[in-house]
């Protein structure tokens, strides 16, 4: 995906810093992607798509198809692309989804929805091939600089 992001930058004749500022991302974050310190996230894809809706999401994320949505189909292609390729059927909107056990209000609900979307994206990108992990300890930190540790029973 980082190579496709570079192709977009080159097609737009932008430097790394200019492109990062254009999509609303910090230049350091974009640099981390290009230097293999981090992987692009759904936030990166959304930032690019919000500024460049003609970019094909399928191409950007998976390398399938062409860089730009087929211009022959015009606005219908952009609408289809924005709806995940399902024609006039609307895409799921996680921003209004109820979040269980949340008492922090709207901002936390949006963050949790973003985490759900990021998790789904990681699964789609084949990053779910991690070994099964087990919880060994949970620590809860308090504002008085103390913490409690919880260890599951074996």
TrEMBL record:
A Pfam short name: HTH_3
HTH cro/C1-type domain boundaries: 5-60
Gene3D superfamilies noted in UniProt: lambda repressor-like DNA-binding domains (1.10.260.40)
InterPro entries, per database record: Cro/C1-type_HTH (IPR001387), Lambda_DNA-bd_dom_sf (IPR010982)
SMART domains: HTH_XRE
Xref: PROSITE patterns: HTH_CROC1 (PS50943)
Domain of life: Bacteria
Protein's UniProt name: Helix-turn-helix transcriptional regulator
Upper taxonomic lineage: Bacteria, Pseudomonadati, Bacteroidota, Bacteroidia, Bacteroidales
């Amino acid at each position: 995906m980082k190579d496709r992001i570079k192709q977009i930058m080159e097609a737009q004749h932008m430097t790394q810093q200019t492109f990062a500022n254009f999509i609303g991302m910090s230049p350091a974050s974009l640099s981390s992607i290009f230097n293999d310190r981090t992987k692009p996230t759904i936030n990166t894809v959304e930032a690019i798509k919000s500024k460049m809706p003609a970019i094909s999401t399928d191409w950007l994320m998976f390398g399938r198809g062409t860089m730009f949505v087929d211009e022959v189909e015009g606005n219908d292609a952009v609408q289809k692309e924005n709806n995940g390729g399902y024609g006039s059927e609307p895409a799921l909107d996680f921003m209004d989804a109820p979040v269980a056990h949340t008492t922090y209000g709207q901002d936390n609900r949006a963050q949790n929805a973003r985490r759900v979307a990021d998790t789904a994206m990681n699964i789609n990108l084949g990053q779910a091939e991690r070994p099964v992990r087990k919880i060994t300890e949970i620590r809860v930190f308090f504002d008085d600089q103390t913490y409690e540790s919880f260890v599951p029973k074996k």
